[in-house]
Amino acid sequence: MPNRDLEPRRAAEDPEDLLPAADVRALLDLVAGTDVEELEVEHHGARVLIRREPTRAAAAPPPVGQAAPEARGVEPADDPFAGLVVVRSSLVGLFFRGKEPGAEALAREGEAVRPGQPLAIVEALRVPHLLEAPVAGTLERVLVQDGHAVEYGQPILLLRPST
């Protein structure tokens, strides 16, 4: 019996190769409210490409040979994260404070946390990915509401490191 995964096929040639409408809707919901401009998913020969106009201009990097203010040891006066460790999303997905939607939070604001402790979850394509504490400290603030979409690199949690 031939291995279907190794045979070349055209995208969505077979009806079984089509992505279910519910999965396409889930992808659209995933990027809604984010700055994601393009998302391409291929699964068993079916390909979905979601593309939209840019929503805002990206900040320009500092000129060549000139370091960013943080790299020079100067913190902007209005930096809301000064003295805090920012836990950022490592992928695009849905943010959950518990192990699943509606579950008890893995960590609460004001609680002490240890390095590697699970703090929350980002779910991408129905696969949960743990957000872990990078340092020991206190969970100061959760910046994203439970169940909301997050982007790659988006600040999600603020930790005050232990001294």
Structure description:
The chain is built from 1 helix and 10 strands. The chain has 2 domains: 8-51, no CATH class; 85-161, Beta Barrel (OB fold (Dihydrolipoamide Acetyltransferase, E2P)), CATH 2.40.50.100. A 4-stranded antiparallel sheet has the order 3-10-8-5, with no helix packed on it. Helix content is 7%, strand content 31%. It has 163 residues and is mainly beta.
Summarize this, please?
This protein has 163 residues and is mainly beta.
Notable characteristics:
2 domains; 1 helix; 10 strands; 31% strand; elongated; disordered N terminus
Broad CATH class of the largest domain: Mainly Beta
Taking the sheet with the most strands, its summary is: 4 strands, antiparallel
Unreliable runs: 1-12, 56-76
How would you name the CATH homologous superfamily of the largest domain?
Answer: RNA polymerase II/Efflux pump adaptor protein, barrel-sandwich hybrid domain
What oligomerization state is this entry in?
Answer: single chain
What Rg do the Cα atoms give?
20 Å
Average predicted local confidence, pLDDT: 75
Shape call:
elongated
Could you say how many structural domains there are in total? 2
How much β-strand is present in the residues? 25-35%
- Sequence of strands across the biggest β-sheet: 3-10-8-5
Helix proportion range: under 10%
**Would you report the number of β strands?**
10
CATH architecture title of the largest domain: Beta Barrel
CATH topology of the largest domain: OB fold (Dihydrolipoamide Acetyltransferase, E2P)
Order of helices and strands: HEEEEEEEEEE
Cα separation of the termini: 63 Å
Structural class: mainly beta
